[in-house]
Amino acid sequence: MAASDILLIHPLLGKTDAWSGYLVDGELQPGGSGEAIRCLIESQLLGKFNSQHPWLIQANLLDPANHALDQRIIPQFSAADKPDGTNAKPQPETGFREAKRQLAVKVGPRDKLPATGAWDYLLIGVGHARTLPPYSLLGLSSRTIVVATDIQTHGDHHWAKENYCSLHTTEFLLTRVDKADKADITRVKLLKILALIAADADTASLDEVLRHESKLSYSLLRLVNSAANALRTPITSISQAINLLGRRQLQRWVQLLVYADPNNAQQPNPLLQKAAARGRLMEILSSRVALQQNIEILGDEAFMVGSFSLLDVLLHMSIGEVVQQLTLPDSVKMALLGHRGVLGQLLKLVIAAETRDTALAASLLGNLPLSAAEHVEAQLEALIWAEKVNVPGEAKN
Fold first, then answer.
1. Which residue from 70, 64, 12, 24 is spatially nearest to 45, judged by alpha carbons?
2. pTM for the whole thing?
3. Is 93 helix (H, G, I), strand (E, B) or coil?
4. CA-CA-CA-CA dihedral for 208, 322, 156, 263, to nearest 10
5. Where are the domains of the chain?
6. Contact status, residue 344 vs residue 338, Cβ threshold 8 Å
7. pLDDT (tens digit, 9 = 90+) per residue, 132-183?
8. Helix, strand or coil, per DSSP, at residue 238
């Protein structure tokens, strides 16, 4: 595939830190087939996402004449591309406005803020937003949905939520929260449980450990039930979870449980969902690569790599220190410690995509036996799965 043919999907957080929209960017080779964007806008998987959540997509990737576009798809323009000193509109914008579609505009520090209501969505970097006069965003937010981008710190995240930004990006999740050096006892215990599972401990041993950790057991059961939609009755005990789901599925939930906050279980945890999305995406991509290359499918190992790859952020430890405490397959160690092997390359691709390094992501994807459409479809499947990993009763935007 062409190195520049790639589409990246990023969840947007709302006021409650639940996923409340999606920001899509990418690059399509001039004169190319547009395989990636066509896969996205025509995918039946879109119907499985919340119908109220917008999809902000670069306007240059969309065709104004396509009147069959899902109404959730919001063409995004850049204020820097608009003509200076004139009221003329670029032709694509005119086409979308004539079709009465909602539109988004991205402004930079040198761009004049648009009039209130001129656009349905305004994308603005949080650094730029913080330099604006007081109440500038308040006026805009009365008729425009403000989307804060480039949120690199938890402080910026808090500021955006408190200052009229309805949606915001998630770069800050890859940075550690400043806190005391005291170890998180709950998560240390979870690492011990993970070590038992990795060492293939028997079911009785696992049940015994979890039985004495009431908060962990409670959180685990809530997490399992949140995604086990196919079950007619809720799972009410660890032994029942093991019997119904099997050790393989239980291991996955424990891997994700390490990111949950047992003391604040009613609140959305975006880091948990990012870990879930990484794990599921790694699993899907690894299976497709395995089929293409006729090699052993490493689905479980791939999920483990994805879900464990954020433990350094969570535990304030290096990934090497985390790996030392667990008995992991060599393929998982290689991927986590040095991005080596097939799983290591997939993890590198996932990280490049999340950090919006489009050029690197496109290059890495070009070296894998995956098409642009397969990559888009895998992202959609992973996001659908991860979106379900919420505790019951969680607030929705």
1. 70
2. 0.87
3. helix
4. 10
5. 55-174, 185-257, 270-387
6. yes
7. 997 889 999 999 999 999 999 999 999 999 999 999 999 999 987 765 444 5
8. helix
